[in-house]
Design goal:
The complex is a heterodimer of chains A (290) and B (257). With 290 residues, chain A is mainly alpha-helical. Chain A is built from 11 helices and 1 strand; from the N terminus they run H-H-H-H-H-H-H-H-E-H-H-H. Chain B is α+β, with helices and mostly antiparallel strands and 257 residues long. Chain B folds into 2 domains: 198 residues, Alpha-Beta Plaits; 32 residues, no CATH class. Chain B is elongated. Classes of the chains: A mainly alpha (290), B alpha+beta (257).
Chain lengths: 290, 257
């Protein structure tokens, strides 16, 4: 799959932002006043910024509002509805904390649930696709939720919890990669089933329908991005988990914490690049590629 | 609405005969010709005369080489367009309701004024049947020429999809699969019409007829063959005399040896 920068930025940043909102929502002793303002500003900047960047890859961004209508069937529509609901509820919760110093715990829990619900609906957009076996697993949802909760813990300064969650996320990521590497061949979809010609023999693409790449080839067959996949996996785990863990184990300093956060975000972004670049779509089979 | 109809009255679709298709791409051209100036936005081209030309097409013809365990490989030309699946995954993923499957005839269409060009339906389609138009920013797909098949302004003979109407080999057939007596139902039954990627559960309406087994020549020679005049190895008569005289002249030593 083509790793569109807008989608990588969106899933990385909004996941982090909604993760932070979730932690702020369930906090029994949340910050108030200016401290609260700073935390919520970061959370909203990440989640709203991510949502806005996701509209950049639309062919017709001016009609994006229509995407709220099909929540009965479409995970993308559910994501939109859930995101707006989460932002509204958490906006009210944040306003009460910042301006009135009042803590409405129930509102916070509702907002936290909606925030994680948004991350879940995002992950289901990918996990539902049978055409991309690597994504088509409940583990994709677990991984997205784990990243959101981990990043949120890190951003909200929950050091002990973040240490555990960083390890859990790294483990889940490695598990997801291991499962994903065999997913396509495990599905049994081949050039022979794609063409129905398997009963005659083995199929080879002799001539593609067009001489230069078209939308399908550009969107679904992105082989160049996989070239350094193994190295990028190591870099991703190192930046996402190993370096932040080491920095958090040092005596606390704001500088080390900031570097840990930046490193974690960079590691998640690398993992998201691979999420798309390594994903193989069944349409590639018609071109004799994956 | 992006929920699929439980049942459609008709199941309109195509039968594509892989035995007959000669790979001429006439269906591709007639499809583009009809659909770029009729239903919906035109099918745009990018850099049509430059390097890396690219464009939106609703129908594409691949060519494959199929190698059996023993014997000669076989070339199969393979036209591919929307299969108008009964369980169309492209429809249910649509966030705006732009993609829908008609309950009356099962045709899968895109309402282009509602399409936001997110591309998720193309991601959900296993067959690559949907292409995002680069100029219009909306998703394009085969309409089964919905603006031809019911069009009373056209002569009756033209009320079928452009690709079917134009196919010079008669490799494409249009009809109603819900009717067991229709031409397409009968063809599918007679020739073992097959689904593409049945394991993905999309239940395609369009069917593909497999190539018929090829004739083999293994040692079979006509019984009259020995009585046929053998082809002369050496020229005789006038040509033989001419050959001899010409060979005496110097100058063809290089090619002779």
């Amino acid at each position: 799959m083509h790793p569109a920068p807008s989608v990588i930025a969106f899933t990385t940043l909004s996941g982090l932002g909604f993760g932070l909102l979730a932690w702020l929502g369930i906090d029994a002793t949340p910050p108030t006043g200016w401290t609260a303002f700073a935390f919520f500003a970061i959370a909203f900047a990440l989640s709203v910024g991510g949502l806005i960047s996701s509209t950049f890859h639309l062919g017709r961004p001016e009609r994006a509002w229509k995407a709220f209508s099909q929540w009965r069937t479409s995970w993308l529509s559910r994501e939109g509805v859930c995101a707006v609901a989460a932002l509204v509820v958490m906006g009210l919760y944040a306003a009460a904390l910042v301006f009135a110093g009042a803590h409405f715990a129930l509102l916070g829990w509702l907002g936290a649930a909606l925030s994680l619900g948004t991350v879940y609906t995002t992950s289901m957009i990918y996990a539902q696709l049978k055409t991309i076996p690597r994504w088509n697993t409940p583990l994709t949802c677990v991984l997205y939720l784990a990243y959101a909760i981990t990043g949120g813990a890190l951003l909200s300064g929950r050091v002990e919890i973040a240490l555990v969650l960083l390890l859990v996320s790294a483990g889940l990521q490695i598990l997801w990669w291991m499962q994903g590497d065999g997913a396509f061949s495990g599905r049994g979809t081949t050039m022979e089933t794609a063409t129905g010609l398997g009963s005659i023999g083995t199929v080879r693409s002799a001539a593609p329908p067009h001489t230069a790449p078209n939308y399908l080839v550009r969107e679904f067959i992105h082989i160049i991005g996989r070239k350094h996949a193994q190295k990028l996996r190591v870099i991703s785990i190192a930046l996402m988990a190993v370096l932040p863990i080491l920095l958090l184990l040092l005596p606390f300093s704001h500088m080390a914490a900031a570097v840990a956060v930046v490193s974690h975000i960079a590691g998640v972004a690398v993992s998201r690049w691979l999420f798309f670049a390594e994903a193989e779509h069944t349409v590639g089979l018609y071109y004799g590629a994956r | 609405m992006t929920s699929l109809p439980e049942k459609t009255e008709k199941k309109l679709g195509l039968v594509i005969d892989l035995d007959t298709c000669v790979g001429c791409h006439a269906c591709v051209i007639s499809c583009k010709g009809w659909n770029t100036e009729n239903y919906g936005a035109p099918l745009s081209d990018q850099r049509p005369y430059g390097t890396d030309p690219m464009g939106t097409f609703l129908n594409r013809v691949h060519s494959y080489e199929v190698q059996p365990d023993s014997g000669q490989a076989q070339t199969v030309h393979f036209p591919k367009s929307c299969l108008h699946c009964e369980d169309a995954p492209c429809v249910t993923v649509c966030p705006t309701g732009a993609s829908y499957k008609r309950s009356e005839d099962g045709i899968v269409l895109v309402n282009e004024t509602d399409c936001i060009g997110c591309g998720l339906c193309a991601w959900a389609c296993p067959y690559g049947a949907r292409e995002l138009d680069q100029a219009e920013g909306v998703m394009k797909k085969c309409t089964l020429c919905v603006d031809r098949i019911y069009n009373e302004n056209l002569p009756e003979v033209d009320r079928e999809p452009a690709c079917v109407r134009t196919c010079p080999a008669g490799a494409r057939h249009f009809g109603d699969f819900a009717d067991p007596e229709s031409n397409v139902s009968k063809l599918t039954a007679e020739r073992g019409g097959m689904d593409l990627m049945p394991e993905l559960g999309t239940k395609p309406v369009n069917k593909y007829l497999p190539p018929r087994p090829k004739d083999a020549w293994d040692g079979e020679e006509d019984i009259l063959a020995p009585f046929l005049t053998p082809v002369a190895e050496e020229p005789s008569g006038f040509l033989g005399w001419l050959d001899k005289q010409l060979s005496r002249l110097p100058g063809d030593g290089k090619t002779d040896s």
